Amino acid sequence: MNTQDKVKFNLQFFSESLNKGSLNDDPEKPKDTDLDSDEETKTYTEEEFNKRLHDELSRRMKQKEKEKQEAVEEAAKLAKMNKDQKAEYEREKLEAELNQLRAEKAMNEMRSEARVMFKDKDIDVSDELLDIVVSDSAETTKNNVDNLTKILDEMVQKKVQETLRQNSPKSFSKSGLSRDEILAIKDDSERQSAIAQNMHLFN
Q1: Which residue of 4, 40, 74, 179 lies most exposed, with the fewest beta carbons within 10 A?
Q2: Same domain (yes/no): 98, 151
Q3: Which of 93-123 are b and which e, b meaning 16 or more Cβ less than 10 Å from the residue's Cβ?
Q4: 90 shares its domain with 128
Q5: What is the phi/psi pair of residue 9, to 5°?
Q6: Same domain? 15 vs 69
């Protein structure tokens, strides 16, 4: 096949969620899609597709090698320990995992609280914004929410004022414009406003 010829492939195989799996995982069956849809397919040359396939397989092989090496190192570390040392090591490892789970649970609860705070202020906050304001301290999180809300309110007020300023009619009452100059104004609304403010020129 000529490498310049274009072929269409469904790239669900390369999705982020699938990349996190191992080579032995059964890939999730892709949903039925319209291969002619521009949103679901992209045109690639055969050379480009083969390169992406090769890069993905290489990445997975490196990940498997890394996991294998870590397992070997872990086994070697345990082999050097006596029975009591192994028990202590496993206890510390389990405690670290439990602490991590507790921290993740606490952060998720804090995120939920922060989302409620924003909702009470009529702000629909994104997950990305929550990541910025949420901390492991309830007081710090509340202060971050209050500060961000204040900033957003100021931005909205500034935008409203700018809009009102742009939409406010120009004043021609003290401009010293003559009748002909007013009639020469091209913008209809401005011309009518100038006439209304200088009716003495049109009596």
Answers
A1: 4
A2: yes
A3: eeeeeeeeeeeeeebeebbeebbebbeeeee
A4: yes
A5: -135, 145
A6: yes
Q: How many CA atoms within 13 Å lie on the side-chain side of 124? A: 0
Structure tokens, 4:
């310049």
Give the number of residues written for the chain. Answer: 203
Please list the pLDDT of the chain residue by residue as tens digits (203 residues): 444 444 444 444 444 444 444 444 444 544 444 444 444 444 557 787 778 788 888 888 999 888 888 888 888 877 777 878 888 888 998 999 999 999 999 899 999 999 998 888 888 888 888 888 898 888 998 898 988 888 888 888 888 787 777 665 555 555 577 878 878 888 877 877 877 777 777 76
The boundaries of the domain holding residue 194 are 172-203
Written as six digits, the tokens of 175 are 């401009």
**Residues 136 and 161 occupy one common structural domain:** yes
> Could you give the 3-state DSSP secondary structure of residue 39?
coil
Nearest alpha-carbon partner for 13 in 28, 1, 24: 28
Amino acid identity of 151? Answer: I
Q: How many CB atoms lie within 10 A of CB 160?
A: 10
Neighbours of 67 (CB within 10 A): 11
